[in-house]
Design goal:
Blueprint lengths: L1 H10 L1 H17 L2 H9 L5 H18 L7 H17 L4 E6 L5 E5 L5 H5 L6 H11 L7 H21 L5 H6 L1 H49 L5
Antiparallel strand pairs: 1-2
Length: 228
């Protein structure tokens, strides 16, 4: 099963990159309904904004300094690798995170690009908070929404620091692929979270549906220009 999944994921690498590129415009424009809801009832997003902004301030004043090290963000990064290794039927052998020297996740099997690139568009801590909120009436207490904003802000800042030319993960998947795939993947990720924050889970589903429809429309329009 592992070999089959790896072959499938790796075989779809460049088609997925092309699909991501096509979905980017629609992923942006499909945020409009959520923006409209935000303007109508801004108080719905206030706890999220407080958490997001609060962490940004804390990061700028304290956490970005080298004295704090990077053990936690490295551990979260490696756990995201591990999550996608498990989801694609690989057995995780070990996870190591150091204070300032990065980390490594070892697993059995050949692997695939999704395992490698997952931390650069999947906000793992945010997914944990969203999972808890899903099972609570009204999305849970106010402090949980503040925590959600903080985890999104944390993911944005940690990904910003981890994305650079010397990053071995990006070298492994290839910078061209990362350039094609990651912008749309991140817009979809943040757009979905934003839609859920403003309008709940139905708004999140509506956002994904609109982004998908926009991508199909763009692909169909481009196809009509082909000379065959």
């Amino acid at each position: 099963m592992q070999r089959l999944i790896n072959a499938l994921v790796n075989g779809l690498k460049w088609p997925i990159a092309a699909a991501a590129l096509l979905s980017l415009p629609g992923s942006l424009t499909s945020m409009q309904p959520a923006l409209n809801r935000l303007l109508e009832v801004p108080e719905h997003a206030l706890p999220f904004v407080l958490g997001f902004g609060g962490y940004i301030v804390g990061w700028w004043l304290f956490f970005r300094k080298h004295i704090w090290g990077s053990a936690f963000s490295t551990l979260e990064h490696e756990l995201t690798h591990a999550l996608f290794a498990v989801l694609t039927f690989h057995r995780v052998k070990s996870i190591k995170a150091t204070w300032r020297q990065g980390g490594v996740m070892q697993f059995e099997g050949g692997g695939n690009w999704l395992i490698t690139i997952a931390p650069y568009f999947v906000p793992t801590l945010t997914l944990v908070v969203l999972a808890v909120m899903f099972f609570l009436d009204g999305g849970g207490p106010r402090w949980l929404h503040i925590g959600l904003g903080a985890t999104v802000s944390y993911h944005a800042t940690s990904t910003w620091r981890e994305t650079h030319r010397e990053q071995t993960d990006l070298q492994e998947v290839g910078f061209l692929f990362a350039f094609l795939f990651l912008p749309a993947a991140n817009v979809l990720s943040y757009g979905l979270i934003f839609a859920i924050v403003v309008g709940g889970w139905p708004a999140g589903i509506e956002y994904l549906s609109a982004a998908y429809s926009s991508a199909l429309t763009l692909a169909s329009g481009l196809y009509s220009y082909l000379p065959f």
